[in-house]
């Protein structure tokens, strides 16, 4: 009987965490732009560290964890981009309504005094 030496390769550190943070950055960016951006940045930094570790010694870590890290990085980039667009949209809305209501407030204030 031939016995094959099956060794289980360990996962990359924080591979699952990177994936979860990337997914959460996409989900949360729709509700809270800044929280989604923070989660995206953290997921991207953790993913980049894990990729660098994998490239140093690719045979040590499992391929599945490498794919999880890549997916997490992609999700983090998407969540970060969506959060940035949402924050820019909030700034535009704030500037628009600030000027509209600010002018109305100032004219009402001048009329009162």
What are the main properties of this structure?
mainly alpha, 113 residues, 79% helix
Order of helices and strands: HHH
What is the distance, rounded to the nearest whole angstrom, between the alpha carbons of the first and last residues? 99 Å
Radius of gyration: 23 Å
Strand count: 0
Instruction: Please bin the fraction of helical residues.
Output: over 70%
Oligomer: single chain
What's the rounded overall pLDDT mean?
88
Parts with pLDDT < 50 across at least 5 consecutive residues: none
Q: Helical stretch count? A: 3
Proportion of beta-strand residues: under 5%
Content-based structural category: mainly alpha
Task: Describe the protein's architecture and organization.
With 113 residues, the protein is mostly helical. The chain has a domain of 72 residues. Helices cover 79% and strands 0% of the residues. It contains three helices and no strands. The protein is rod-shaped. The mean pLDDT is 88.
SSE arrangement:
Elements: H1 15-29, H2 33-56, H3 63-112
Helix pairs in contact: 1-2, 1-3, 2-3
Tell me briefly what this model is.
By secondary structure, the protein is mainly α. It has 3 helices and no strands.
């Amino acid at each position: 009987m031939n016995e094959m030496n099956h060794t289980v390769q360990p996962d990359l550190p924080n591979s699952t965490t990177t994936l979860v943070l990337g997914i959460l950055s996409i989900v949360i960016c729709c509700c809270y732009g800044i929280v989604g951006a923070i989660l995206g940045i953290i997921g991207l930094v953790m993913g980049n560290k894990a990729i660098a570790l994998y490239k140093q010694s690719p045979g040590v870590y499992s391929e599945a964890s490498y794919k999880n890290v890549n997916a997490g990085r992609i999700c983090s980039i998407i969540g970060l981009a969506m959060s940035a667009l949402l924050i820019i949209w909030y700034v535009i809305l704030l500037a628009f309504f600030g000027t509209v209501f600010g002018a109305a407030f100032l004219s009402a204030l001048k009329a009162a005094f």
